[in-house]
Specification:
The chain is mainly alpha-helical. It has helices spanning 10-16, 40-48, 52-60, 67-73, 75-86, 118-121, 138-165, 180-191; strands at 61-63, 99-101. A two-stranded antiparallel sheet has the order 1-2. The protein is elongated, with a radius of gyration of 20 Å. The mean pLDDT is 88. The chain binds iron/sulfur cluster (SF4) (2 copies).
């Protein structure tokens, strides 16, 4: 998955997929500061293997020669992305590449709007993409993150209540065929994709 500035997995993305409201200010900063979870080297290898999303991504995005070059263009976003990566143990800051789009106009508008690829049509797509500061989607992303947290809290609360109501501390109070242990495992499985965002503490 090559969603711009998103460092999660397909699984997480699928669980949040939805129509996007029209909140873009058309500043063009995300078009000049794209990054991906995969390194540039990995993207090139995927292109060699015929991966369509990697091909689409590199058809529009050109890598900056260095992080410093990207910093000259979008300093606040480079700062933000580098901070995010520093907090992750599954990403290496030395492997990060920033990209700028070949089709963004000097005014920040998309010159291929009608045929822009999926990663652009769906960005930011969910609450966890690292969008440039003051992006028009900031409030919407906040709402998405809160919604996700509420969903997980409700799940944990419900599992806790079932444990309290269990007649023997082993079986589900309403579905005796289900063991509480299975319920616990199901909850852990549900919150696992969000672990990197702190889901164990929500
Ligand atoms: S940074 Fe946000 S407001 Fe600016 S162009 Fe990208 S999506 Fe639109
Ligand atoms: S194709 Fe258009 S929307 Fe996508 S990054 Fe380029 S300018 Fe932005």
């Amino acid at each position: 998955m090559f969603d711009m500035n998103y460092y999660g997995t397909d699984e997480e993305l699928k669980s949040e997929k939805q129509d996007l409201p029209d909140l873009c200010h058309k500043c063009g900063r995300c078009c000049r500061s794209a990054t991906t979870f995969n390194s540039y080297k990995k993207l090139l290898a995927l292109v060699e293997q015929g991966d369509k999303e990697a091909i689409d991504f590199l058809e529009i995005f050109e890598p900056y020669a260095s992080i410093e070059d990207a910093r000259q263009v979008v300093p606040d976003q480079v700062e933000q992305v580098m901070k995010t990566i520093a907090d992750r143990d599954d990403m290496d800051a030395n492997e990060v590449t920033f990209y700028h789009c070949r089709y963004v106009s000097p005014e920040g508008l998309c010159t291929i709007y009608e045929r822009r690829p999926r990663c652009c049509r769906e960005a930011p797509g969910h609450g966890w993409s690292v969008m440039p500061p003051n992006c028009g989607f900031e409030g919407w992303q906040f709402e998405q993150r809160e919604k996700q947290k509420r969903m997980i809290r409700d799940l944990k609360t419900s599992a806790y209540i079932m444990e309290q109501l269990s007649p023997d501390g082993v079986h589900h109070p309403v579905r005796p065929d289900t063991k509480l242990e299975d319920l616990r495992l199901m909850v852990l499985e549900k919150i696992k994709p969000w672990k990197m965002f702190g889901s164990h503490y929500w």
